[in-house]
Amino acid sequence: MKRIISCALAGAVVSTAILAAQTPAAQTQARPVVLQRVLVKVNGAIFTKTELEQLQIDVLREQNQRQLSQMDLQTDESLRQSLIEITPEILANTIDELILVQRGRELGLRMTDAQFKDMVDGVKRDNQFDEATFQAAMASQGLTMDQLRKNFERAYLQQGVIRQDVSPRISITEEEARQYYRAHPEEFMKPTMITVREISVLVPSQTQLGQPVINVAEDEAAQAKILAARARALKGEDFAALVTELSESGSKANGGLIGPLNLNELAESLRAVLTPLKTGDIAEPIRTPVGFQLLKVESKTDAGVEPFETVRVDVGAKVQGERQDVEMQRFIEGLRELAIIEWKDDDLKKLYEQYREQHKKKIS
Fold first, then answer.
1. What confidence tens digit (pLDDT) does each residue in 248-261 have?
2. Element (H, E) at 259
3. Residue 232 covered by a domain
4. Contact (Cβ atoms closer than 8 angstroms) between residue 22 and residue 104
5. 113 domain residue, yes or no
6. From the CB of residue 18, how many other CB atoms can be counted at a distance below 10 Å?
7. Which of 94, 97, 173, 318 shows the smallest number of beta carbons within 10 Å?
C-alpha cells in the first residue's frame, strides 16, 4: 500500500511540457505553450497536477499553521508523510466537488456580480479588513480576485445543489426531535449562571526603585474596612446601600452588580469561592491585586438540561444536520455512479478507489 501511495505521489510532482513549433519560422514567432498534465477527467471537467499540488499545500499549510512551498514538501520528511496521508481524501473530495458543481450548472444556478460583492464584503466585515488589508491577505495566500470568485462560485453552486436537491428530501417530525433530545441530553445543558454584587476597597500602591510597594498600614486599614462591611451585611444591612457607601470600583454606579456570569468560565480561584455559595450568601473577603473584594450572590441557577421547548430550534437543526449528511452521501453516491470518471494516472486511480472503498458509508 505504501509503495503504491509513494509512487502516486512521486508522479504528482509538478511537470510541464514546453512545445516549440517545428519550423524555424514558427520558432522565431511562437511563444512556448505550457501544458498542464491532466490527472483525471470527470464528465469532461479536468483536474490537473498543478491543482492537486495547490490543494496539498493548502491542507498542509492549514495543518501546520505556516507558509509552505513545493521545496518544503520535498525536503521535510514529516510533511512528505503527511502528504501521503492527505492525498487520497483530496482526490475523493475534488471529484465529488466537480460532480456537484456540474449538477449546479445543470440546475441553472449562477452566482451574480452582486452576490460575489456581498461575499467579499462579508469577508472584509467578519475579519475587520479595510481594502488594503484585504488585498494584502489575498496576496499572502497567492490569490487573485478571479481565483477568489471561482472558489466562491464553486461553494455557491454546491450549496445550491444541497438546497434544491437534498434539503427537500429531509423532513423531521416532532417525535423524532424529542427522541433526539432525550438521547442527547448533554448537548442541551445550560451552565451554572451566577450574578453577584461587589464591594471593592482599593489599597493605594507606591513605586520604589521601579517596583510597586504597598503601605502595610493602608493594607490593614482596607482589610478592616471590608471585614466591617461584611459584618454589617451579615447583620441584615442592605448590600446595595453598602456598595453605594463603601465601594471604590466602577461597578458602584449600578449597585455593584456583575453578571450573569458563566461559572465555568471564571478563574479557578474565583470559581472555588463561588461554587459552594447559594443565592443570598456572602463570601469571605477576597484579596485582589489592587485591594479587597466582597461578593454577595444575588442569583444563581444551577446547571441542567434546557427544557425541550426552549431548545426546540436547536434540536431541529441538529437532527437536520445529521439527516442532511446521510442524504447528501446518498445523493452524491448516485451522481458518482452516473459520472464518467477517466483517470490519466493509474496510481492515483488506485488511491482513489481504495479510499472510496474504505470510507464508503452504508446506505440503507
1. 988 999 999 999 99
2. strand 257-262
3. yes
4. no
5. no
6. 9
7. 173
